[in-house]
Amino acid sequence: MGALILSIIGGAIPNERRASAMGMVMAAFSVASVIGVPAGLFLADLSDWHMPFIVLGGLALLTLIPVAIYIPSMTDHISSYEQKPSPIQIVRNVTSNKNQMLALLFGSVIMFSHFSVVPFISPYLTTNVGFSDSQIKYIYLIGGALTVFSSPFIGRMADKYGRSKILQ
């Protein structure tokens, strides 16, 4: 989903405002952390572990209407069937391009490190630091709240001063 959102930004937002748009999207992910994780833990405390998923599914259904109204059609890249490369040719193009392979490797390393560390934050904080299970939601709340403000700021700075200066 993240790749799809970033692709939409790349196609719909002019280059001079693209970093700001990405900063806003990253802030939205932070809002999901600030609101979603603590709310999910709260709902699980009230009921059982199924409740956060049921509520999230209902909210996802409610977002279909605004998505249909506000997300622009991204069909300009679609041409006739004869002009499309085959899936095998697409894979060959990607695997023969060093930059694309490095980007895929980098993305894989980031995901692997994320999935290796993040699941252990909560057990570490409860076992080693001394937080109770009911206090973990506040850690997510504070961390997410800080990035709600920092992500758009960094995006604006990247648009203003250049991505290579700000994001390196």
Walk me through what this model shows.
Helices cover 76% and strands 0% of the residues. It has helices at residues 2-12, 18-46, 50-62, 64-70, 87-95, 98-117, 121-129, 136-161, 163-166. With 168 residues, the protein is mainly alpha-helical. It has nine helices and no strands.
Short description:
The protein has 168 residues and is an all-alpha fold. The chain has nine helices and no strands. It is 76% helix and 0% strand.
For the residues shown, what is the average pLDDT? 86
Low-confidence stretches: none
Q: Describe the global form.
A: globular
Counted by DSSP, the helix tally is 9
Rg value: 20 Å
Helical content (DSSP H or I, runs of 4+): over 70%
- State the end-to-end distance: 25 Å
What's the story with the biggest beta sheet? none
Structural class: mainly alpha
Number of strands: 0
Order of helices and strands: HHHHHHHHH
How many domains comprise the coordinates? 1
Report the portion of residues in β strands: under 5%
